[in-house]
Amino acid sequence: MPHVPTEDFIEACKQVVRANERFIPPYGSGGALYLRPFVIGTGDNIGVRTAPEFIFSVFAIPVGAYFKGGLVPHNFKISSFDRAAPNGTGAAKVGGNYAASLMPGAEAKKSGFADAIYLDPATHSKIEEVGSANFFGITHDDQFITPKSASVLPGITRLSLMELAETRLGLKVTEGDVFIDKLDLFKEAGACGTAAVISPIGGIEYNGKLHVFHSTETVGPVTQKLYAELTGVQSGDVEAPAGWIVKV
Fold first, then answer.
1. Domain 6-63, CATH 3.40.50.880 — does that match?
2. Which CATH number applies to 74-235?
3. What does each C-alpha distance from 153 to 13, 14, 76, 163, 237 come to in angstroms?
4. Domain extents for the chain?
């Protein structure tokens, strides 16, 4: 699959925003115009092989809060399924990775949870990702920790929060193991992604027991500050780090 030149990528996003300006949610509404750039293989090909041609496209859609209720804590459930295989395509944003999360996610929601959380496929002892977002935790000594694994998607919201946590909140940022039997190390936890932004994790159910972090009712203070900082940058109310903003 060919690389899309950066200049073409940015220009395509600009054109889509201009064409859909009337659909941008009002300032202060909490909504956003979500952009989804994608590349899809096309051409005469029925076999299992690389496509001979590709189409690069960008679509836009106005969105509100990804999880119901907005910035409120949600409970998640550890899934017995694997989202991605070791040494597989877990770190790539490809459709096949999402297919593996559909049934576990539906089962978690049927049981009253916001979504499923997946453990590492090799040992099933470490948290890797939430079904539709990255995971992060805040320790009792104010470290921002997010899983590091070859099968974790390096999401842009995750990277943004890592930078803001360190430079704006003064937290020590670490990419490392988050063991499922060591959740007591964390006072807060959250799921983060382009659509979700930040969804505070109230509790995680594992082996029939719900481990509660800060609260299942209120948002933790560090998570609240991270959310305010990131959404403030997105809305223009907070000065953005150099290179983050592209004017349309």
1. no
2. 3.20.10.10
3. 22, 25, 19, 17, 29
4. 6-63, 74-235
User: 149 exposed, middle or buried (CB, 10 Å; 0-12, 13-18, 19+)?
Assistant: buried
E-strand ranges in the chain read: 32-42, 53-63, 74-78, 116-119, 127-130, 133-139, 143-147, 172-176, 186-193, 197-206, 209-212
Which one from 14, 68, 77, 93 is the annotated catalytic residue?
Answer: 93
What is the DSSP code (8-state) at residue 64? -
Each residue's pLDDT tens digit in the chain (248 positions)?
Answer: 889 999 999 999 999 999 999 999 999 888 899 999 999 999 888 888 899 999 999 999 999 877 777 789 999 999 999 988 888 888 888 888 888 899 999 999 999 999 999 999 999 999 999 988 999 999 999 999 999 988 888 999 999 999 999 999 999 999 999 999 999 999 999 999 987 789 999 999 999 999 999 999 999 999 999 999 999 999 999 999 999 999 99
Q: Does the annotation count 93 as an active-site position?
A: yes
Report the predicted TM-score, pTM, of the whole model to 2 decimal places: 0.93
